[in-house]
Amino acid sequence: MDDTIVAISTALGVGAISIIRLSGKDAISITNKVFKGKNLNEVESHTINYGHIYDKDELIDEVLVSVMKSPKTYTKEDVVEINCHGGINTTEKVLELLILNGARLAEPGEFTKRAFLNGRIDLTQSEAVMDLIESKSNLERKEALKNVEGRISKLIDEYRNKIMDLISHIEVNIDYPEYYDIEIVDDDKVKISLEELIKELKKLIKESEDKEIVTTGIKTIIVGRPNVGKSSILNSLLEYDKAIVTDIEGTTRDIVEGNIYIDGIHLNIIDTAGIRKTDNVVEQIGVEKSLSLIDEADLVLVVLNGNEKLTDLDKEVLEKTKNKTNIVLINKNDLEKNIDDKVLEDRVVISTNTTNMHGLDSLKEKIRELFKLDQISTNDYTYLTNTRQISLAKKALQSLENAKEGTKNNDPIDMIEIDIKNAFDLLGEIVGKNYSDEILDNLFRNFCVGK
Description:
There is one protein chain. The protein has three domains: about 5-115, 2-Layer Sandwich (Gyrase A, domain 2), CATH 3.30.1360; about 150-210 and about 385-430, Four Helix Bundle (Hemerythrin (Met), subunit A), CATH 1.20.120.430; about 215-375, P-loop containing nucleotide triphosphate hydrolases (Rossmann fold, 3-Layer(aba) Sandwich). By secondary structure, the protein is α/β, with parallel strands linked by helices. The protein starts with a strand and ends in a 7-residue tail after the last helix. About 45% of the residues lie in helices and about 20% in strands.
């Protein structure tokens, strides 16, 4: 990290302003080479300075340059932000000049990576920065902002301190058994401590899995045989015509996606090809894709035609989805009822039609109930926000449970301690107390270049 990095930090295109950011020990001196105005090496930190960018004698742009000196910056390095006029040509020309004068084009997420490596933020805060950038609702934004401020970090640090207290007591008893004034830590006391730690970690994991949908959303699949109204339901939920609707079987041959929000939670709704036997190769691919998506879904909306009796294909779809979180929509209730819905007594069933939108409000209310969206939007507890964090917590939980099992089996205390230390290290990976270069590369790979 001895070099100075540079990147465009705003979306590249036509706009009022573009921001080019530099970070590193030479950020100010490199900018000074192409800037005419005040000497940036002599200005106060955290000031905005008016001037012009020149390529030798050629005027490139009129700019405002923000100078922020370490360590009170995003990366804890010297940071310069050049506010130039928006536009692809001008912005890229300024960027090119800075690179020619010694800066290196930043990798995706490298500014935030430097903030982590320099100790300004930890891994959970780094991930929260990306969550904040990608937030699509007020709820996502609020949750991400709390985690940028270090809410998860504080929780994990407090929990790891409890584990370290247990490890310290064990090691004192192992290293200094001859002292009578230390607290004796036998298997029963270790077991009690482990039970408390396990209970607390299980609660955190359960709450985190419940609230993970704030950031991941609910992947919702609409399935059923052709012409039962799947595409009409998608269009009605989206409140515009996203999918083509006809009375011709096989109209939808590939997936059609749309997005809605319920209580601030994102639903990615996918309308699939009608499930039926077909000799059409293209349609058959669509049918196979529909069936495979069922396994990936968080919620399956099974659509049946209330005007017709259940067919073998209907029963096949019902069987395929019985172990998934699902809602059965008996559609076309504005027509004569011919479906025998007694076979659906153990399913969540809603009667709908897309002529007058009957049942769609009930569908949204049932989704709120199934996923406890009202609690998610009102409760303010701290939780882990992504698969990486939750999987590490689960591994730590397994290590603590292994340690507890060791106390039951009267294993040597130093062997039990190995499992406890492993849990401590795994939780440290969540916040980045210990990490590998591969973990960092994977984490920051999906960041935008200028962040």
